[in-house]
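User: Teach me something about this protein's shape.
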Amino acid sequence: MAGHDNAIHLINPAASHITGWSAEDAVGTDFHHVMPLVDQKGEPLQSGQHPFAQALATGKPVRDAKAELRSKDGKLTAISIIVSPVLNEASQPTGNVVGVFRDVTTEKEEEERRSDFISTASHEMRTPLAAIEGYLSLATNPKIAQVDTNAKNYIDKAANATKHLGVLFQDLLTSSRAEDGRLSSYPSAVELGEVVAQVVENERFHAKEKNLDLIYQVSAPKDSGGKVIRPLYYSFVDPHRIAEVLQNIIDNAIKYTLNGSITVRLTGNLTVIQIQVSDTGAGIPTEDIPHLFQKFYRVDNSTTRTIGGTGLGLYISRKLVELYNGRIWVESQLNKGSTFFINLPRLTSTQALEMQKNQAATTSPMQQ
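Assistant: First, the predicted structure itself:
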């Protein structure tokens, strides 16, 4: 237990064993010293990122946070931690929090072994799969081979199945890297309006193939005097990764919308940028929504059975958005369509320009 003074008030024997701090030494000591945490890259968590600090600052619980705890003797232990605020009779935070954490070293090692297997298998499978795709393409090339209509139909189906398998292997590889922190990411100060506009433009052809309207809207300040002024929405993200997320969401909207439109909106306030993707599709059952961003989860109905998918796209999207301290969720009603929301932290123009200057100063010596 810790209080608003950041001091440990109570520590049990199990916590003492993991942290290496005796109750006598820990009580009255700042929790940052007793429980120093590091992230997946081995970097110390900033004060505001510590689960205890977050719960104390917001008065809200922090659930299932993953980190490594550096004990008093320097040993690192993988832990899962839940921190809950202590409430009074009126259900108001008292300024104290209780943290429960457990050693998940064994679980982490098992996850790493599974991840290594998936990564290796996916990588090795892609080489023979590329060869199969190549030979199937040659078989349907009239300049190289002659096949009758029935044979061509069979080959086309085999080619489509092979492409689907290739997407599955790529998604498995990406999800495996996202889980263990090996996903490549090169964040910088990015103006998201340009990223969103480019993705929407790239997706117009797919929407047109299904006779769907693809609409892009950007909010404008109310005091613009009748003029439409596009705000600049800067965020510290990898533009290619965010484009990947947005493309996946729009692709899904197009796949699961039979008629009508898909609308992409970009809006925000001083601290948050929000991207919305709304469709006029069949909607998602209420019971499926809490599971939609889990690995391999797919809504089971007559529509999804006829449309291919790996069940990994939304899981990967969630991992990527969370990589930039963002949030993704969906609101949906059956027969009324769905809206996916992506929230990302917003930078001010001054912050963005400063970051861009620092990045230019860092990279320019290497380019000389």
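Now, about its shape. Residues 364-368 have pLDDT under 50 and may be disordered. The CA atoms of residues 9 and 365 lie 51 Å apart. If you'd like, I can walk through any region in more detail.
User: That's plenty for now, thanks!
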